[in-house]
Amino acid sequence: MTATLTAPPARGDERLARQSAFSRLAGRPEIGALVGAVVIFILFFVVAPPFREAPSIATVLYQSSLYGIPAVGVALLMIGGEFDLSAGVAVISSSLVASMTAYQLSVNVWVGVLVSLVVALAIGLLNGYLLVRTKLPSFLVTLATFFMLTGLNLALTKLISGGVATKDISDIDGFASAQAIFAQSFDVGGVSLRITLLWWIVFVAIATWVLLKTHLGNWIFAVGGADASARAVGVPVKKVKIGLFMTVSFLCWFTGMHILFSFNTVQSGQGPGNEFLYIIAAVVGGCLLTGGYGSAVGAAIGAFIFGMTEQGIVLAGWEADWFKFFLGAMLLGATLLNVYVRRRAETRK
Amino acid sequence: MSRRVRRSLALVTAACLAFAGAACSSQGGAQEEADTNSGGGTNSGAGPQLKMAMVTHAPAGDTFFDIIRKGADAAAAANNVEYTYSNDGDPTRQAVLIENAVNAKPDALLVSVPAPEAVKGAVQKAVAAGIPVVGFNAGRETFKDWGAMMYFGQDETIAGRAAGERLKGEGAGKVLCVIQAQGQSQLEARCNGVREGFGGQVENINVTGTDLTSVRSTLESKLRQDPAITHVMTLGAPFALTAAQAKQTAGSKATIVTFDTNAELVGKIESGEIAWAVDQQPYLQGYMSVTAAAFYLRNGNTLGGGQEVLTGPSFIDKSNIANVSKYAKAGTR
């Protein structure tokens, strides 16, 4: 990616200068998205009375977490300069593998969960390996895996379970404990929250720590920003990229486990289209499409903007046929605001 | 791959296998599956094997069309027929699939046609080539126009109207009609039918059918936004199951009713979580299309007397669920 050379704005020598706390905050990639999120929140708070109630917010946060968990990985990958278009179907591949392994072999569901983790990581490894080996754009490599996984999901499910959906696994040993980890609900002050929300926070925290406080984090920015010079200074570019693809696979696997243990069965045709939502979350949250710039917190805010808009339109009771239009218009608005705020922040320095 | 990575991979695999052996589940899973093979029936197919082509508008991985195919498979086995199958939800791509199928010169063409404008030309190429065409599932209003000699299916508007009348009889207040693929005419027709038959307030909502968690969240939000909703009408079994979950989380009292069934849904009707389902008997649609085409080719018979043969609507509720349940588990209802 050659365009990346110009990407990181307002860096360089300026970093050595002392900055006020305010301008440091204003220079963060996620600040524009945060302002967008606040504006959309206030908008729905005003126009949609049900949006003001805690259970509705719980649903908004839950739905955001399902976009947000894979988006953490997708954001890291995008900072590292690559895309993964197979992420949406990989989620369903994971749940199909876990479900069919446990059911067909009549083994404890945890065996299925672990087998599917191995398969998921192998998919990430394959994506990464093909990328560094063929030097094709990740857009093409993962588009190919996207189609292959879509076909495999359907064909193998039909071949193995004789139908296009997997069988109910809720009476198999280990289901209860797996459900407690991946898909339980718990009460906080009378409001039912789903556990993915906590996991989302954990994943965002880990990713943020890695990006900002570790060598690995520097490497990720380096391979996305300028991969040739990163290699020249000794960054293990190939390993970092393969690792990033496997991180995406891991988070997709996690989301897949949540889907399996909250629905007990899996429909094999699910998933396509969601890969774009993860990318959207990362980009709305301030990640550059060209790599080298972005943050995990930003992707979380991006996912929140998307989840909030999607649910907010319903909670506001707006005409259903216009749903997608409103969704697109609000995303455009949030992104424009994002760009505006970031430009202001940059010129202020 | 470094040797260390390779060795640890081998270790992981070995550990998984060992664990798999030790962790056999004492219950559930395939071990409990009874032999559900329903048998092929007697072979009524005299003469050489017939080759047919089936082209549908089914989205990939659709549980409903899976039942249609099971019916078609059984009929093919019983009638000494071999058939090819292809599907695409996009009308223009479906038209291409039909042309491909016609080019292979099958003995008969079996099609579902939700968008006649786009597909008509392709189907008429089959008619021009002297290939008999049988329609099923979608396209009832127009099947004579595009050249089908027989049609097996339900009228979506009639089915919707029947469902609407039943809702009226049950004293429903406000009905939410859940459309899982925005802009599909047969889904809109169902909701319109419900609106006509019910006569009261029916509101449509569009959800993303390829993402069940999103469907669930959207329905949760909708049920919170509008507490006046007394009935949720979904247009496919997986969405009814999802709506039942959403209802629970949203603390709603709404009754869930649906079009179409699958094995899991039947269990929920037994337990009362879902009140009833409108059944169009997809197994029969697949079975009869293949069978009728075979009879036409071997014996010159036609069914329906130039009119459509309706396979629905019938209702599945607590009163007849016991009868349907065992067939649903075998995947034929």
TrEMBL record, chain A:
It is a multi-pass membrane protein. The chain crosses the membrane at residues 31-48, 60-79, 110-132, 138-156, 191-212, 242-264, 276-306, 322-341. It is found in: Cell membrane. InterPro entries: ABC_transp_permease (IPR001851). GO terms for molecular function: transmembrane transporter activity. Keywords: Cell inner membrane, Cell membrane, Membrane, Sugar transport, Transmembrane, Transmembrane helix, Transport. It comes from the Bacteria. One of its GO terms (cellular component) is plasma membrane. The keyword Transmembrane helix applies. Part of the binding-protein-dependent transport system for D-xylose. Probably responsible for the translocation of the substrate across the membrane. This is Xylose transport system permease protein XylH.
From TrEMBL, chain B:
Residues 1-30 form the signal peptide. It is found in: Cell envelope. Belongs to the bacterial solute-binding protein 2 family. One of its GO terms (cellular component) is outer membrane-bounded periplasmic space. One of its GO terms (molecular function) is carbohydrate binding. This is Sugar ABC transporter substrate-binding protein. It holds the Pfam family Peripla_BP_4. SUPFAM superfamilies: Periplasmic binding protein-like I. Keywords: Signal. It comes from Spirilliplanes yamanashiensis. Residues 28-48 are annotated as: Disordered. Residues 59-298 form the Periplasmic binding protein domain.
